[in-house]
Amino acid sequence: MELANGKQNKFFTLESEGENRYYIEDFNAEETKGLNNVYLLAKEVTENSIVLDIGCAQGNFGKILKEKNCTVYGIDLDEKAIEYAKNSGYYDEVFIMDVTNKDSDEYRDFINRVNQVDAIVISDVFEHVVDPTKLLLESSKLLKEDGIILISVPNVAHMDILLNLMNDKFNYQDMGILDNTHLKFFTKTSFVDWIQQINETFDEINFDCEYLGATFYNNEFLSIMERDYSELFTILENSPNYNGLQILFKITKLSKDKSPVELKKLHDEPKIEVVKILGNALKGKINNIENHKPVEGQRLWYEMKLKDMKTIMEQKDKYIEELEDSVHWHVDKVQELNKAVNWYRENDKNIQINIEQKDQYIKELEDSVHWHIDKVQELNKAIEWHQENDKNVKVFIEQKESELEEQKNKYKQEILELRKKIFDMENTRSWRWTKFLRRGK
After folding, report:
1. Does residue 24 carry a pLDDT above 60?
2. Does the structure show a pLDDT above 60 at 426?
């Protein structure tokens, strides 16, 4: 998504397209620090503070401030945004209201509950309102003395905007620097001048102002400029916020007797005359071009990348150490294998002898196997012979048994007949009469 000039002007957004266009589902301030204003501004809030988030939207500030044990209240005019903030669970209370409308019931209810706070966050809000001065003044009344207002506004001095403007392009988009709902535009210097004007105009107001840096946005247009027009790019990047997306400030509410020291420093600091540098360059008088200093967000991004790189390097060193250990281990194993090879070479003759003996044993074993096979075949033949003659033997035995049985029966009959004859003889008269004669015998 383009956050500066688009290829075509999108002067308005359809209602169906604009719903939830500022919502980021997986927003993480820590992981994207340097690329978002939440991380940079939230660093300025001390722990256990009472904080009012004006224009709280989905509640990104609420999350990081709750991690600091802050009491956080949210205000927004958008019902959908308020719903997100409520559901986030990071806000003690949220209010749908206009903080500049003190006559509303919502404002009176808000004042009864909140009263004064330690810090106010007004992030990406001033560019959307008709009267930013009124919003700043009314908001500051809710602030304790020495309390702070943390502000971010889009940076219209981005190189993409400046150069495309010379080509007659000021193309609004759905969001970004040229969001088509923006009514006011800011640069670092114009913002400082605005706060200076407030101090000079309103007797009861005394603000100090500190510049906190900027988030950054390097888009395709800047890459093309750096590649194809490096001389021009080198000159234009002398602008402090040539790639700044949002510029960030801390406003401190001072009593009238205190001097706005930081504001005076910002107001009096020497400005880099980029137009003058460019003009002299076109005349061939290029000299004393300042070295580019990255904006705060870009510096933090570089630090984050360096930290990631350090972690990667530490992991690389660990892997190298593990690889070296592995190499040493393998070298040791190779040496052991070489020793084993040498041992086998030394004992090759014995191994050869053992192999010959093994062959001899195998031959003897084969001969033994053949001998046993022959014996088994002979036994099989004997078994077959016995099996073949088994029937004849069985018939012979049965025949003999039959003959014996017949002979037995014959003998039995003869015995019975003999016994009968003896019985008959003993029962004759003559046998009984001569019985006494046989006693002596």
Report:
1. no
2. yes
Strand 50-54 vs strand 244-253: parallel, antiparallel, or unpaired?
Answer: unpaired
Identify the bridge partners of residue 117 per DSSP, sorted by sequence position: 143
CB distance 290 to 238 below 8 Å: yes
Which of 36-40, 169-173, 263-267, 435-439 has the lowest average pLDDT? 435-439
Residue 117's nearest CA partner among 149, 91, 95 is 149
Please give the class, per CATH, of domain 15-217+240-273.
alpha beta
3-state class (DSSP) for residue 186? strand
Distances 320 to 306, 311, 313 between C-alpha atoms, Å: 20, 14, 10
Structure tokens at 297: 């967000």
- Within 43-149, residue ranges assigned H as helices are 60-66, 79-88, 105-114, 132-140
Give the C-alpha separation, 298 to 300, whole Å.
5
Mean pLDDT of the chain: 84
Which residue type does 427 have?
Answer: N
Tell me the chain's radius of gyration from C-alpha atoms.
Answer: 56
Q: What is the mean pLDDT of residues 380-391?
A: 78
Question: In terms of Cα–Cα distance, which of 245, 307, 306, 308 is closest to 35?
Answer: 245
Phi/psi of residue 252, each to 5°? -115, 130
Name the DSSP class of 271.
P
- Contact between 41 and 195 under an 8 Å Cβ cutoff? The reply is no
Q: How far is CA 389 from CA 210, 278, 282, 376, in A?
A: 126, 130, 131, 20
Nearest alpha carbon to residue 181 among 51, 44, 12: 12
User: How distant is the alpha carbon of residue 366 from its chain centre?
Assistant: 68
CB atoms inside a 10 Å sphere around CB 149: 22
Phi then psi dihedrals of residue 14, to 5 deg: -60, 150
